[in-house]
């Protein structure tokens, strides 16, 4: 009996070694230059040129190969990109012929690449809110040229990214749709570029609270002698720098026309979420990131970095189907009307009324 168990153990050990050798042979045979361009973009969402740029940025941040047969840095990046893009479980990514590897190896590659994409200087390079008047004026002008609404430096909203039930502080992540999530706040410009993102709050946190704690709010409030607006839905408190819809506005009234335009411009953030999640499907709310909240937040930030790289390079991504759009809408948590202090609310109403009057004069 003991001899039989020893033979079985030896056979299993040899089988594992043979699988490892086969994976290594397949990885060694991989030559990305042989992958057709359309297939490369389809698998990894980046063009070959953009992939090379990404490698220049983050290969120095990846751990060096510890062994002669260690995974090449470029293959680690391809593996992570494939996971972000397909939203597949790690095991299935590891089975692909373009990067065969064990599930544990895929997990390690994903963590290393995600950590590199979250390096502070990488985040600052690719996700940057306008810091001076000239930069803000460029964004304002683009919004005005496209929509005719002045002084807009961004649109803001939150979107839920599903995660598995966390082992700690589970109540912070359980949202009103009864699943666990990261409530991710994003600000975008008119080109769908993400200028600010916060993926540090659980799904139980309201949108308005995340905004109250956001450093961008303090930045905008500190601007002097400059009219600057973010556009948000009614889940945000009306402020001098935060333009929200007018409640119960009559259609074809000045307020109704403002609401129509404000919503039309605010669709920019909805399109940004659609493009982001269409390209990086691991973020779809119908799926789950099987990671702790901290790691899930880093994956979200990594996808936002890659999103901006693709937008700037003009690379088209796969769009969500109508069924996927509907699934996203169903899984998103509806906003709650934000509470507001009287003095700040009055200042916001004055600013919004001035904007409405200006729009009417310019009709």
Task: Describe the 3D structure.
- The protein is α/β, with parallel strands linked by helices and 363 residues long.
- Helices cover 53% and strands 8% of the residues.
- The protein contains 14 helices and 5 strands.
- α4 packs across α6 and α6 crosses α12.
- It is globular and about 85 Å long.
- About 5% of the residues have low confidence.
The value of Rg in angstroms is 24 Å
Q: End-to-end distance, in Å?
A: 91 Å
Q: Give the ordered list of helices and strands.
A: HHHHHHHHEEEHHEEHHHH
Overall shape: it is globular
The parts where pLDDT drops under 50 for at least 5 residues are 18-29, 90-95
Portion of residues in beta strands equals: 5-15%
- Tell me the structural class: alpha/beta
Largest sheet report: 5 strands, mixed
User: Major sheet: order of its strands?
Assistant: 3-2-1-4-5
State the total count of DSSP E strands: 5
| Subunit organisation of the chains | single chain
Q: Figure out the total of helices.
A: 14
Residue-averaged pLDDT: 87
Query: How helical, in percent, are the residues?
Result: 40-55%
Cofactor: a divalent metal cation
Organism: Parnassius mnemosyne
Domain DDE Tnp4: 156-308
Family: Belongs to the HARBI1 family.
Describe the secondary structure blueprint for this structure:
Elements: H1 2-29, H2 37-44, H3 48-58, H4 73-86, H5 90-95, H6 103-117, H7 120-126, H8 133-147, E1 152-162, E2 181-188, E3 194-198, H9 207-212, H10 215-221, E4 229-231, E5 242-243, H11 254-279, H12 293-313, H13 322-331, H14 342-361
Helix pairs in contact: 4-6, 6-12
